[in-house]
């Protein structure tokens, strides 16, 4: 069960115009930067991207926005990107903003084989418009549908050739839920090892969810907000 | 009148021993600096961490260790990391004891608006809608009036809502107020040097004043 592909270009080779992609990461942390670079190079367009954020102007999904490859973004927070804001205000880009927990849980539902979830997030707000509301134990909940994505593209710390994945610290974020949710899941990892080298007790994403895996080289792992304290 | 640090210091007094606390972006982040040392508190960051510590020392920043504001942070001993679905799972399941967040407007029935200014700002709600929909204990940290001098404590919010009937307490540069279940801002404390009259002038929503209002102790 070897899921290995040679590089990002091969991993994304059959991604077509108009497809829906999930992209892991929170801000710049845990971003599948090698696959994004390959998608920019490939020039595939009219994409719908499900990702918590939209990158910054010169990194992450921002690079795809700059090339006008994205038709629609589904995100929870899209600040920090001037080109994004320009395309949004000019109507060139369609954007659906949804609560962060709803975004994560709609991914989770897809990975757990559940068609929908009920959440209180958005009740009484414009997020609830047009959605089914159910009352459980005296409290209202919105029905939100599981996502359907042609590809989920995630970044992990370590993986083995069978597709088992381990994430590091808060770079796990959306990667672990999106990895479960794609019709085809591509995982890029900092370190790719042989089966048996990862402790089964510490696998975060079982390889059954992962279809393609490769080791990226020279990760930039950019920091969005560098905050430090002085040594006393 | 309090500065931002003063607001953070006053809110820190609301944190009790054994609490799991989620701090929003802005003034709420500063609250972490004033948590009393004699109590045990765990900070939750909704991008997937329990046990958030202070900023790292220069040279020790790690791109994989950030908070919900995308700032580099550290993980304290006993920390746990998890994915975004579990993070909001513990919020939805009310495991987090206290949520502190900023706001553009709060109404006298506890509605909050803090994610969108139509035609001007389109950054998104992030995790705020999930937090306010589930948390039972929500404190808002904000300025009493906006940059145009207009009250942010209103009869009804004018901006798109983040959540309804959810805010329990507000701490501003002028005052500490409870939002009553039946509606209305009940004045609890005045900031040092601030009169009840100044607070009344800065509050557009229904203000409830009972007896002498003490000056807050920070």
Main traits of this protein?
heterodimer; A: alpha/beta; Glutaconate Coenzyme A-transferase; eight-stranded mixed β-sheet; about 20% helix; globular; B: ten-stranded mixed β-sheet; three-stranded mixed β-sheet; 13 strands; about 15% helix
Please, could you describe this protein's structure?
The complex is a heterodimer of chains A (232) and B (218). By secondary structure, chain A is of the alpha/beta class. Helix content of chain A is 19%, strand content 27%. In chain A, the strands form two sheets. In chain A, strands 1, 2, 3, 4, 8, 9, 10 and 11 form an eight-stranded mixed β-sheet that branches. In chain A, strand 8 (149-160) and strand 9 form a beta hairpin. Chain A is globular. Chain B is of the alpha/beta class and 218 residues long. Chain B has five helices and 13 strands. Chain B has helices at residues 4-12, 27-31, 84-92, 128-134, 196-202; strands spanning 20-23, 42-45, 49-53, 74-81, 98-101, 105-107, 112-113, 138-141, 153-154, 169-171, 175-179, 185-190, 207-208. In chain B, strand 2 and strand 3 form a beta hairpin. The longest helix of chain B is centred in the N-terminal third of the chain and has 9 residues, at 4-12. The chains are: A alpha/beta (232), B alpha/beta (218). The interface between A and B is large, with 59 and 54 residues.
């Amino acid at each position: 069960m070897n899921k290995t592909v040679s590089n990002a270009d091969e991993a994304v080779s059959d991604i077509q115009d108009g497809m829906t992609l999930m992209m892991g990461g929170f801000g710049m942390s845990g971003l599948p930067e090698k696959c994004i670079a390959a998608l920019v190079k490939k020039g595939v367009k009219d994409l719908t991207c499900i990702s918590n954020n939209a990158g910054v102007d010169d990194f992450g999904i921002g690079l795809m926005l700059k090339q006008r490859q994205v038709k629609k973004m589904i995100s929870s927070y899209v600040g920090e990107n001037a080109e994004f804001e320009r395309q949004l205000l000019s109507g060139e880009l369609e954007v659906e903003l949804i609560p962060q927990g709803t975004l994560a849980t709609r991914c989770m539902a897809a990975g757990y084989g559940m068609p929908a979830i009920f959440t209180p997030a958005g009740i009484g707000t414009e997020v609830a418009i047009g959605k089914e509301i159910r009352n459980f134990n005296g409290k209202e909940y919105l029905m939100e549908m599981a996502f359907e994505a042609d590809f989920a593209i995630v970044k992990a710390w370590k993986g083995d050739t069978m597709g088992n994945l381990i994430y590091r610290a808060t770079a796990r974020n959306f990667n672990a839920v999106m990895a479960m949710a794609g019709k085809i899941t591509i995982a890029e990892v900092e370190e790719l090892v042989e089966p048996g080298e990862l402790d089964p007790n510490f696998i975060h994403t079982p390889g059954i969810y992962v279809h393609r895996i490769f080791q990226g080289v020279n990760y930039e792992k950019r920091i969005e907000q560098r905050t430090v304290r002085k040594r006393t | 009148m309090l500065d931002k640090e003063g607001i953070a210091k006053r809110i820190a007094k609301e944190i009790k021993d054994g609490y799991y606390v989620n701090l929003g972006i802005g003034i709420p982040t500063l609250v972490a600096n004033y948590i009393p040392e004699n109590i045990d508190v765990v900070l939750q960051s909704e991008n997937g961490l329990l046990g958030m510590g202070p900023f790292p020392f220069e040279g020790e920043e790690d791109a994989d260790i950030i908070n919900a504001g995308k700032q580099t942070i550290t993980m304290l001993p006993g920390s746990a990391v998890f994915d975004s679905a579990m993070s909001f799972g513990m919020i939805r399941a009310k495991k987090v004891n206290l949520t502190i967040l900023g706001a553009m407007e709060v109404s006298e029935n506890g509605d909050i608006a803090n994610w969108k200014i139509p035609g001007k700002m389109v950054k998104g709600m992030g995790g705020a809608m999930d937090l306010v929909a589930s948390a039972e204990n929500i404190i808002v940290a904000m300025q009493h009036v906006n940059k145009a001098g207009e009250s942010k404590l209103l009869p009804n919010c004018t901006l798109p809502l983040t959540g309804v009937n959810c805010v329990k307490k507000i701490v501003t540069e002028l005052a500490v107020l409870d939002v009553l279940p039946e509606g209305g801002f009940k004045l609890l404390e005045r900031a040092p040097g601030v009169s009840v009259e100044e607070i009344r002038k800065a509050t557009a929503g229904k203000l409830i004043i009972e007896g002498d209002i003490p000056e807050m102790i920070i």
